[in-house]
Structures are given as C-alpha cells and as structure tokens.
UniProtKB/TrEMBL annotation:
Name assigned to this protein: Glycerol acyltransferase
SMART domains per record: PlsC
InterPro entries, A to Z: P_lipid/glycerol_AcTrfase_prd (IPR016676), Plipid/glycerol_acylTrfase (IPR002123)
Organismal lineage: Bacteria, Bacillati, Actinomycetota, Actinomycetes, Mycobacteriales
Keyword Nucleotide-binding on entry: no
Recorded GO MF terms: acyltransferase activity
Annotated Phospholipid/glycerol acyltransferase domain residues: 46-165
Amino acid sequence: MSAGTFDLTARDETWVKRVLPVLRLVAKKYFRSEVRGMDKVPDGGVLLVSNHSGGLMAFDVPVISVAFADEFGAERPLYTLAHDLIFTGAGKDVFGKFGFLPAHPKNAVAALEAGAATIVFPGGEWEVLRPTSESATIDFHGRTGYIRTALEAGVPIVPIVTIGGQETQLFLNRGDALAKLLKLDKLLRIDSAPFAFGFPFGLTAHFPPNIPLPSKLVTEVLDPIDITAEFGTNPDHDEVDQMIRKRMQHALDGLARERRFPVLG
C-alpha cells in the first residue's frame, strides 16, 4: 500500500465506541462544547468542510466527532482526513482504527463513494497555527482541492465552523518565515512555525507542547451545498470555493459576535 492511500476497513467500530465516552467527557466538560445543526448532515456520502483551530493539539476534531456520533450513532462511519505526520510509527494503526485517513484525494473519494461522511480541513496546518488575532478568520491558504473531491465523488458539501480553538493558548505570530528557515515546508509539509504562550511552559515554538486552556468551543453546521445544482455541471472551482468560504465566514462572524469573553465564551 502506498503512503498516500489507506485501507478504509482499518476503522474499528469497537475502538470508536470505547474512546467516545472519553472524548465526550473532554469535549462537553473541559471545553463545554456546543454544536448546532448536526441534524443538517444528509444521509450517505457527504463531505464535511471545516475550519481548523487549536494548534498541534486541536480539539475541533473530537468535538465534531462526538456530536456526529450523538446524532447518528457510532455505527455511521465518519472519516477524518489528516496530515501525514500523525500516521508515522504506531500512529498509522492507532489513528486508522478511529477513522483517520491521510489527506489524499484517493482516500477521500473512496470514503465518499462508499457512502461515508468524511471531514476535511482545507486550511490544514496553515489555518490551525494562525495567530489568535485571526481566530475568527476562515483561511484555506488558496486550497480548493476539496471542491474537486466533492465533484468527483458526486456528494454534497456541508460547511462547518468552530470558534474558541485559537484561544486554547495565545498564538503570537504566523511563523511562516521560521518554517522556511528550518525547511519544515520541505521536510514535514508544514508552512507555519509560530510562537505561542501557554501553560505550563510559557513561550514555546510548540515544543514542548502546552496544555490547552479550557476554552469554550462553539460549532455551527451550515446547510448542505449541492455544487452542480448551484453552479452547473462545469463549475469554476475558485468561484465555488469563494462562495463556500463567504458563507462560512458569515457564520463564524456570527459566532464571534456572540462571544463575550476569550476562553470563557
């Protein structure tokens, strides 16, 4: 099996059911998560497109996963497209059991054509490591491959936005210059290496990792988008991407206006 492709059958429903209570405890008690509109996700294959927040210890993934399982049951598979780094060593077996797939178009299309819900974070490490001052900004870094994936698999897109993740510690800068200096973009496919301030190690470049603050995470699931119905059979991918990000930004702006205090929510 190549590094890019992955076996969908690696997901183990028994393992998922075992870890869900722990994830639910962390999501609902520690992060006081609130997820709205999960019932909007249609049956069958669907591409969930989300913003990404929280640094190297992002918890928007378990928050969404818990809400998805609460709505549809652990029996309905949810696959998560993730950076190759988490599949190094034992990570391949561990994360594979929970439905994580390397973020490769073939994996995404295979999962979607199998009728599974699949979540992608187009902004990836660029967005998840953005400064806290940009916590309410959708930034996919020009990546539009998710549009092609949805069209190839013939599935709708359901946008999802979450606020609060970039308050789990204080991200001070973007760190793209440092990433280039250290050649992380070449070695690890990471475009950002920001400095962050948190507990217990204070100012770090993410190593050693600080413990995320218990910031309240609020998530909103938006209405499904049928690309062909809205844009025709040969849509302009940049136009579709611009529309999706505009809707997501509008929803995220609404969540930001509701937020009265950092971390507390």
